Amino acid sequence: MGKLEFWTELNDIGNLIVGPWCIGGDFNGILFPSDRKGNSRTNRKPNCFHNWIAEFSLLDLPLTNLQHTWSNFRANASCSKIDRFFISKERPDKHPKTHLKGLPKPVLDHFPLMIDTTHLKGGPTPFRFENMWLLHRDFKQNV
Description:
Radius of gyration: 23 Å
Strand order of the largest sheet: 1-6-3
Shape: elongated
Helix content: 10-25%
Strand content: 15-25%
Structural class: alpha+beta
């Protein structure tokens, strides 16, 4: 699949979605010149990537601990930030601190990414009744 077909297919998928959404993976494209290091090749279709993000009002989740997500790991290494996760802008206030963390690279040339939502709280801890409390000698006095 060529780049143009890829962006056309992503547009088609985006048009089917109603409501908030999240999409991530290897987009094999950069958004900014700082997303690439050690390679003089330029992104031939940067506008397709930017246009797609703008058309679907997507937010690029920030990557907090890595600058690049791919490397060829050669002596004179090329590195790029081509793996990303996007969320729809419909409710950015709901998860303002959600971000990406790069995990240790096991074998491949891409660093695995994890969406970090540890700041989210599910509300107060629900009350749980323990049957063993019924057996306590002071139970009837205290209840």
